Amino acid sequence: MPQPATLSATRCTLGEGALWHPDRNSFLWFDILGHRLYEHDGQQERHWQFDRAVSAAGIVDAKRLLIASERDLFLFDLDVATETRLCDLEADNPVTRSNDGRADPLGGFWIGTMGYAGETGAGAIYRWYKGELRRLFAPISIPNAICFAPDGGRAYFTDTPTGVIRRVALDAEGWPTGDPEDWLDLRPEGLNPDGAVTDAEGNFWNAQWEASRVACYAPDGRFLRALDLPTPQTTCPAFGGPEFTRLMVTSAAEGRPDEDRAAGNTFVFETDAQGRAEPRVLV
Predict the structure, then answer these.
(1) How many helices and strands, by DSSP H and E, does the chain display?
(2) The pLDDT of residue 1
């Protein structure tokens, strides 16, 4: 079983939004509650500080990201650190912030919102596509596991407290068609699904909060294997590296004792799995 290396020993209060940027040959991630975006190219780490919570991003081009914050979606230029606002995201609701999000194969961007205290039903899941932000699913308490089948035909997501991963069919423009269905029930094992990503074969890799692991499931829901981590609060995986065989995993230090020195660190596994590049967001 592969063992994780520590990509970054920076202690994130709530690490999230793992993302590989192939143009920059670097991993990116967020500390939501620290209001920071981090980048590590395997040698050096840098960060950008924001005035609000930021949680997830999609790649637009070599230097720009679409970033979701507690109140808006905006374009961020990594070279000159400038912001260009795209639209509000529950800007009139001080209770909520953004959480998990990911670009879809059609160039859209899905993003979930939730209460700062995890208030029941306070959040929702939205999709940004060609200048329009549309609410897809609500109410949601803690949106997570947003990812997509490689062919773009299905989206996955969860409301973490339910313990159930859901999936929904998508139309030719990437919008949900029909009602979501329960796909993977983790309640019998007492598992809390957090962020997720699919690999090139459509296998579903899920960080499981308080379980110290990322678990891999086949497209039919069969458990395949799990990768263990040295801290319990794992939050979000992403494939990257030159061949997309490295699996990056973020974690959270919030509520963990000081003795857990791995809490909030960011890890990377060398795997025999084959990931794929994240789609670009159309703006």
Answers:
(1) 0, 24
(2) 75
